[in-house]
Write a structure and sequence with these properties.
This protein has about 210 residues and is mostly helical. About 70% of the residues lie in helices and about 0% in strands. The chain has two domains: about 45 residues, Arc Repressor Mutant, subunit A; about 140 residues, Tetracycline Repressor, domain 2, CATH 1.10.357.10. The protein has ten helices and no strands.
Length: about 210
C-alpha cells in the first residue's frame, strides 16, 4: 500500500449532496468510530442513497479518507494562500504553523486521534486512511511550499520532505501529549510563543544567511 496521500476526487455533479454525505459521515465516524459506522447509517443521515455514496466512495476506507481530507482543507489550503510567497519563508511558515496549531488543537481532531490510537493494530484501514490523508497530506502541502522557497533562493534545504516533517514535528511536544491525554490545552499566548520559537529555529537552520 502506498504511503502517499491519494489525489482528490473530481468535482461532484451535486456538491450540496456531497457536502451532506461528508458531514453525515464525519459525525458518524466521530460518534461511532470506524468499525461501527455503516454506509447505511451515513446514507440515512444524509438523505442520499447508498448506491450514490458507493459511486463516489467504493469502500468505507475511501469515505473515511475523504472525511479526513475535508477536515484538513477546512483548516488550511496552502495552494490558495496568497501570503505564502516563496520569497518570504518566515512569514509563510508563521501562517502554516498557526494553521497547523489550530488543526491539532481542535477538539474533534483530538477526539479522532484518541479513537484511532485506541484501535491501532485492529482497524488497519482506518489508521492507514487517517495517516495518508492527515499527516502525509499535510506534509506534502508544506513540502510544496518549501520546494518553491528553495527554487526562489530564500531557503537552503536539500530535502524538502524531511524539512516539512521536521517543521511540523516541532509542534508535537509535551503540550500536544498533554492535550491528547485530556489534561488541558495551551493558551493562545503559549501557542503563539511556541510558533515564534519554531519558526525562528527553522529559519536559523535553513534560512539564507
Amino acid at each position: 500500500m502506498s504511503d502517499q496521500p491519494k489525489s482528490k476526487l473530481g468535482r461532484p455533479r451535486d456538491p450540496e449532496r456531497m457536502r451532506r454525505v461528508l458531514e453525515a459521515a464525519e459525525q458518524q465516524f466521530l460518534e461511532q468510530g470506524f468499525e461501527r459506522t455503516s454506509v447505511e447509517a451515513v446514507a440515512k443521515a444524509s438523505g442520499v442513497s447508498k448506491m450514490t455514496i458507493y459511486s463516489y466512495f467504493p469502500t468505507k476506507k475511501a469515505l473515511f479518507e475523504a472525511v479526513i481530507d475535508k477536515r484538513v482543507d477546512a483548516a488550511f489550503d496552502f495552494e490558495n494562500a496568497a501570503n505564502l510567497t516563496p520569497a518570504d519563508p518566515r512569514a509563510a511558515l508563521t501562517v502554516i504553523g498557526r494553521h497547523f496549531l489550530g488543526l491539532i488543537r481542535a477538539d474533534d481532531v483530538i477526539c479522532k486521534q484518541r479513537v484511532l490510537y485506541a484501535e491501532a493494530g485492529v482497524q488497519q484501514d482506518a489508521c492507514s486512511a487517517f495517516f495518508q490523508q492527515g499527516p502525509l497530506n499535510i506534509v506534502a502541502r508544506v513540502r510544496a511550499y518549501l520546494d518553491g522557497a528553495v527554487a526562489a533562493g530564500s531557503l537552503e534545504l536539500h530535502d524538502a520532505e524531511a524539512g516539512a516533517d521536521q517543521f511540523l514535528s516541532l509542534f508535537l511536544g509535551t503540550a500536544d501529549i498533554k492535550a491528547m491525554l485530556g489534561l488541558g490545552k495551551p493558551t493562545a499566548e503559549e501557542d503563539e510563543r511556541l510558533l515564534e520559537r519554531n519558526v525562528e529555529m527553522f529559519m536559523r537552520a535553513y534560512g539564507k544567511h
